[in-house]
Amino acid sequence: MQVFHLSHIDLDGYGCQFIAKNFFDHIQFYNANYGKEVLARLQTIVQQIQNQVKLESKFRSKKPQKFLILITDLNLSMQESLFLQEKVDFMRIDGIDIEIILLDHHISGEESAKNFGWYFLDTQRCATKITYHYLKEHYTLKNPQDEKILDLIVEMINSIDIWKEENYGFEFGKVALSLIANSNELNRFMFDEEHRNYKFKLLESIKDYITLPNAEVAFDNAIFRLKKIALGGNPETQTMDNITSMAQVKLLTEKKDTCTINYKDKKGFLSYSMGGISVLANLFLKNNPEYDFYIDINAKGNVSLRANGNCDVNTLSKECFNGGGHKNASGGKLEHFRESFVYEDIKNQVIKALTKEKE
Predict the structure, then answer these.
(1) 114 and 221 together in one domain
(2) In a shared domain, residues 180 and 276
(3) Which residues of the chain fall short of a pLDDT of 70?
């Protein structure tokens, strides 16, 4: 069975996925905050399943695969629920074996829960606890020896997420909650899988601390070191800034084929919502001398540009983004920018600005 798991972006949301990893071998993760991103991720999941079915149909000797769409810690609106139900119904008509399970605790999803049998709502437990109990009832833990420690982690997340100060691990939960909220060294939109795996590594480290005396203090003291290690650095010899920049540049370099853009005869690299790019952009340009400039655009259409002496980004910004600054560091704004959760959409808008192509 292939699982497509969509969840929220806080401790409870990633906690659900951390738990699901312990039950399924073939699982693909997606995350969304509320608003337009939820529907965008649902559309992506549906498209991924359809693409996979088409690919498998070429090998007709292979037994058709079962698919599970698992949604946790997100309440779907009626519109979003209807969209998903209709898409799944059409796929079932085409003979695709597919199931939806939604496990959530937000009362705002009550209307959808009343109208769809796959929508499980329980306002008394956090989503991680609901997910853990549901999966234990219907599936098998890959490593049964992990059950006791997972029990503790789930109870800790439940205590902090529904704010039960008297319950197990509440103080530890405050540390874990802050950890996940502030572990954004790898941008979620540019490095979706790597960002998630980084948080999984940090959640995995909880196993080594949660049973210690004064566990929350021990874990709190260890976090900076744990983050350095999770990012692939040496906590004894490297600063966090250098570790983070090197990790980001390595990942960006792997995306050169996707993220390359051009302005006249100059070659540039485009990132989305990285923020604070001074150190990052200069390190990227130093390590990739074939690039003349680096551009980052955020969700509001604000543009930051850096160069290494081979491109006048002040002129570029004036011509394309109504901005300005210095030859090697400048900024501006992309007019009529449309926020998107798909990188290709962002890139196409920037290319139009760089080439003066009209909408």
Answers:
(1) no
(2) no
(3) 59-62, 357-359
What is the pTM for the complete model shown?
0.92
Per-residue pLDDT reduced to its tens digit, 312-351: 999 999 999 999 999 999 999 999 999 999 999 999 999 9
Query: What SS3 state is found at 5?
Result: strand
The answer to whether residue 158 is domain-embedded is no
Q: What is the pLDDT of residues 208-224, one digit of tens each?
A: 999 999 999 999 999 99
62, with CB counted inside 10 A (0-12, 13-18, 19+), is exposed
Rounded to whole angstroms, how far apart are CA atoms 28 and 48?
A: 10
At 316 the pLDDT is 96
106 and 221 part of one domain: no
| pLDDT at 141 (0 to 100) | 97
Spatial neighbors of 11 by CB under 8 A, at least 6 apart, are 157, 160, 161, 173, 176, 177, 179, 180, 181
Residues in the chain: 359
CA distance 167 to 307: 53
User: Residue 255 half-sphere exposure, CB side, CA atoms within 13 Å?
Assistant: 21
Give the CA distances from residue 355 to residues 5, 264, 265, in Å, rounded to whole numbers and listed in that order: 39, 8, 11
For helices 313-321 and 343-355, what crossing angle results, to 10°? 100
Token pair 């549906």 in the structure block, residue? 46
Q: Which two tokens stand for residue 209?
A: 């601390």
**Helical residues (DSSP H) of the chain, grouped into ranges:** 11-20, 36-57, 78-93, 110-115, 127-138, 147-161, 170-181, 192-205, 215-230, 240-253, 256-259, 278-287, 313-321, 343-355
In whole angstroms, how far apart are CA 121 and each of 49, 101, 109, 135, 201? 25, 11, 8, 15, 29
Token representation of residue 243: 């570790």
- Which residue type does 38 have? V
Asked if 7 and 31 count as a contact pair (C-beta separation under 8 A), the reply is yes
Per the structure, the count of domains in the chain is 3
Residues 31 and 18 in one domain: yes
**Cα separations in angstroms, 128 against 72, 152, 182:** 8, 12, 20
